[in-house]
Specification:
Blueprint: H1 5-18, H2 21-41, H3 52-68, H4 70-82, H5 84-90, H6 95-124, H7 132-159, H8 163-168, H9 170-175, H10 191-198, H11 201-214, H12 219-248
Length: 249
Amino acid sequence: MKNKTGVLLGRLMRNIMRSPDTIITVAITPIMMMLLFVYVFGGAIKTGTDSYLNYLVPGILIMAIASGVAYTSVRLFNDVKSGLMARFISMPIKHSSILWAHVLASFVSNALTIVIVILVALLMGFRSSATIIDWFSIAGLLGLFTLALTWLAVIPGLTAKSMEGATGYSYPLIFLPFISSAFVPTDTMPKVVRVFAENQPVTSIVNSIRAFLYGGNISHDLWIALTWCVGIMVIAYFFATKEFQRKVG
């Protein structure tokens, strides 16, 4: 069997580029949240920083990724329901190519969304002292987070009975940044909420990105963030491939 990941990826990317509103739609929600929090709520929120926009950007990037991975579920669900998945499985190609094409399409499309969000943030006044190495580190962490959530998205894409079921899992992911250090410092939260916020993956990832952007201490939060991302990805990959093998028969 031949590895046709590149060909299948090309098919998905052509579909995305023929309908760029997908990327724009994904970018609109985090951009609108950024505008709302900076220009409406920003003056009332105390973060101990000179610029609330600079404080907010890492959380907005996480929200953009959480919004974008939902489309992986949609594309997989459509392939399954239309019979296209069964057709691919019957062809002399590596079955793993089918899933990896969807995962890589999510990776690329989310990268484009991140670029759009950062450009808008720059227009709003976002500034960073990060070096090129810091930016590569941020890109690597965001890329790992994207892969983790994308493999998680594969599961409902393969198992859902309806479009709503395929996308419903993404809503908790989108709102998870609100109960983290993404928008306000966790020490301003009630004790029970603070305990949850400080021990969920978004907080460590956001804190790591802030450290890279503004020269903070990255060691502790970064290792926790990497552990969360790798752990989620390994577990999601296991269950996603197991479900796919069940469909392959």
